[in-house]
């Protein structure tokens, strides 16, 4: 599967509840989202597997891959397209081994120390951030700003998305910093019209 990082949607259970998880994601994909990550820190594995299967069915034929946050067992059980791991979420190499060559595997990177010690071998992309402070993620790392983002992208051996506090009007700055595109939660999830909110990222 070709990986298009132009507009990466990360879900949030609270924010997506406004229209429903599947409805929000399907609308966002109509609006141009190119990659979807199912992220829910509190759901049980069984709940997440059920959500991932329903999302997978809804996305079938769209060409938009579904990535699971953190939980390799959920990615395996739901036959998802990939896994996104944080710095403390275990081993990307083990995930590659378990999921196979065709899976999409991403890693969050917050700073140059993490960048310097990562092994790009098992990875397809990096998620860099937060660019700005955000209330969507608790206890996030220090914001990079666009200059910090550009410096981190310059040191990246892999294509990258930027995340954290990004809105539709930031697309040009994200790409100018060298990232492939923005990854967003609240700019799409929880908006009155998620399709229009996604489309706004492509407006010139
Ligand atoms: N990782 C770094 S910031 C963040 C994550 C998951 C939350 C991004 O949410 P929002 O609403 O797009 O700022
Ligand atoms: Mg994590």
From TrEMBL:
Keyword field: Magnesium, Metal-binding, Thiamine biosynthesis, Transferase
Pathway: Cofactor biosynthesis; thiamine diphosphate biosynthesis; thiamine phosphate from 4-amino-2-methyl-5-diphosphomethylpyrimidine and 4-methyl-5-(2-phosphoethyl)-thiazole: step 1/1
Keyword field contains Metal-binding: yes
Gene Ontology biological process terms, A to Z: thiamine biosynthetic process; thiamine diphosphate biosynthetic process
InterPro entries, alphabetized: Aldolase_TIM (IPR013785), ThiamineP_synth_sf (IPR036206), ThiamineP_synth_TenI (IPR022998), TMP_synthase (IPR034291)
Record: residues binding 4-amino-2-methyl-5-(diphosphooxymethyl)pyrimidine: 37-41, 69, 108, 137
Gene3D superfamilies noted in UniProt: Aldolase class I
EC numbers, comma separated: 2.5.1.3
MF annotations from Gene Ontology: magnesium ion binding; thiamine-phosphate diphosphorylase activity
Free-text comment on the cofactor: Binds 1 Mg(2+) ion per subunit.
Entry cofactors: Mg(2+)
Pfam families in alphabetical order: TMP-TENI
Cellular component terms per the entry's GO annotation: cytoplasm
Main enzyme class: transferase
UniProt-annotated binding residues for 2-[(2R,5Z)-2-carboxy-4-methylthiazol-5(2H)-ylidene]ethyl phosphate: 134-136, 165, 185-186
Binding site for Mg(2+): 70, 89
Reactions this protein catalyses: 4-methyl-5-(2-phosphooxyethyl)-thiazole + 4-amino-2-methyl-5-(diphosphooxymethyl)pyrimidine + H(+) = thiamine phosphate + diphosphate; 2-(2-carboxy-4-methylthiazol-5-yl)ethyl phosphate + 4-amino-2-methyl-5-(diphosphooxymethyl)pyrimidine + 2 H(+) = thiamine phosphate + CO2 + diphosphate; 2-[(2R,5Z)-2-carboxy-4-methylthiazol-5(2H)-ylidene]ethyl phosphate + 4-amino-2-methyl-5-(diphosphooxymethyl)pyrimidine + 2 H(+) = thiamine phosphate + CO2 + diphosphate
Domain Thiamine phosphate synthase/TenI: 7-188
Signal peptide: none
Source organism, top-level taxon: Bacteria
Function: Condenses 4-methyl-5-(beta-hydroxyethyl)thiazole monophosphate (THZ-P) and 2-methyl-4-amino-5-hydroxymethyl pyrimidine pyrophosphate (HMP-PP) to form thiamine monophosphate (TMP).
Family: Belongs to the thiamine-phosphate synthase family.
Descriptive protein name: Thiamine-phosphate synthase
Species for this entry: Billgrantia endophytica
């Amino acid at each position: 599967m070709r990986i298009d990082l132009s507009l990466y949607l990360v879900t949030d259970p609270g924010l997506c509840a406004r229209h429903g998880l599947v409805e929000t994601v399907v609308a966002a994909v109509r609006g141009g989202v190119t990659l979807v990550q199912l992220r829910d820190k509190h759901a049980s594995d069984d709940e997440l597997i059920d959500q991932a299967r329903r999302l997978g069915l809804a996305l079938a034929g769209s060409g938009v891959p579904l990535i699971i946050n953190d939980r390799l067992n959920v990615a395996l059980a739901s036959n998802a397209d990939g896994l996104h791991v944080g710095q403390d979420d275990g081993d990307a190499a083990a995930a590659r081994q378990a999921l196979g060559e065709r899976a999409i595997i991403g890693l969050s990177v917050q700073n140059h120390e993490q960048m310097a010690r990562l092994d790009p071998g098992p990875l397809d992309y990096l998620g860099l951030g937060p660019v700005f402070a955000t209330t969507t993620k608790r206890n996030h790392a220090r914001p990079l700003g666009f200059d910090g983002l550009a410096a981190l992208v310059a040191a990246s051996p892999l294509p990258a998305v930027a995340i954290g506090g990004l809105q539709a009007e930031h697309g040009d700055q994200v790409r100018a910093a060298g990232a492939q595109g923005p990854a967003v939660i609240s700019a799409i999830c929880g908006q009155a019209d998620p399709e229009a909110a996604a489309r706004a990222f492509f407006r010139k």
